[in-house]
Amino acid sequence: MLSQTIAEFLFYAKTHLSLSPLDAIYCQNLLLKRFGLQQPYEGEVDEKAIASETLPDRYVEAFSQYFMEKEGMDANEAERECVWLFGLVSPRPSEVSREFEKNRAVSPDLALDELYRLSIANYYVQKSKIDKNIVFNASFSDGPDLEISINLSKPEKNNKDIAKLVHAKASGYPACALCKENLGFEGDARRPARENIRIVPLKLDEEDWYLQYSPYGYYYEHCILLFDHHVPMEMNRRILSKLLSFLDQFPGFFIGSNSDLPIVGGSILNHEHFQGGRHEMPLFKAKALREIPCPHFPHCKLEEIDFYNTVLRIASASHDELLDLAETIMTAWRHYDDPACSILSSDEAGQHSTVTPLAKKVDGVYQMYLILRNNRCDETYPDGIFHAHPEYAHIKHEGIGLIEAAGLFILPARLVRQSKEAEEASAKHWSMEEAVSHYPDLDIFSDMIEKLNQGMTTKQYLASVCRGILNNVAVFKKDEEGKAGLSRFLGKVNL
Q1: Would you say the pTM of this structure is higher than 0.90?
Q2: I need a surface site. Which of 220, 299, 349, 364 has the fewest CB within 10 A?
Q3: CATH number for the domain including 256?
């Protein structure tokens, strides 16, 4: 019964979203109007059962079913309408910010945890969908572990949505999916609804930034820090300092930035932002290969990390000296050329070399990881010399941003189906011609089928590909030539 569901929804909002009784009356009347009802439910609701709920799924399911059956919406349209409903009963952004600061005065962890709890309860972080992601660890006998996730939570556009784009009016508002102007945004054919998003303001080195959680959380408490202004990403001392400023306020999180160049910079380069969370990235678990002397920076410890791509780690209790060393390395790298290793810092196409930085705090000591990156392309590798090479494109062709560069791979949902098809082809000993006749996608999965035929499991195959991609990303390979190349570079840095 719709009126009963609305009554239960309102009690859920009172209990889990801090909806006040006065606001509940207001919301009740708006909900009655939305659903064309004349009066509210007059019966009792099971308050104890609702109070014990931790997820909003029951209400999403009930309202979505109503919208599709009674109003003829498709699943995506119903989803957007549910987002509006949760936005209506969620606390106003100003209330969320006040509560965040109140909790922060008690404990930074409490403030973040409560914002995360709210983001789940109001259907912004869709935990039930995230929990369906296929996640596993990949171990290797001769290298550090990686983490792999086949992401099922991020929705894919269907043909109907794509058709809508043809007739959708272009709009420059909000300027991008990260801008603070997404607060309460209705969404359209191009961009998701954001009526239920809640962000909180922060100061990073006296600049105005905002913190929100990611709706498609790739790891625990996956958060996004976004700059107040819609400006392109850049990589310099100012950005590195912002990372440390965040750690000073929230030492229980890691924080990192994508690079500032295409191919190596993730998917959004037009708005300055960071990503963080309460997660131990595989990179952070990797051992040091060697300590690198840096006599000009006596309060810093510089190490080469035993990882698949090229990573340097700086550890220091000194905020300023760590930044000095990080800036020195970054500046040297941005202007360093080594044709023997296919490294050119810049050419007529523009700047090629930059870094992907990640930072955390351990026992009061800053740790900053600098991943050396280069986005050069050539005739052999038109998508990037230090990018996933063509033999891996069937598994992963998107740019390798900070999350994957740190060892956590996010693979597309299509692989669930495609892997099952490849497994079937292997089990039935089909020729490739037979396999493609059954499943056309398998024309690019011959290598996977061959490996399965040799006894490799699907997870082992995906792990080998992800490892191979990180090897591609490495600007200095782990062979003798690469080791010599890294030593040449470090010899040019005024350490």
Answers
A1: yes
A2: 364
A3: 3.30.428
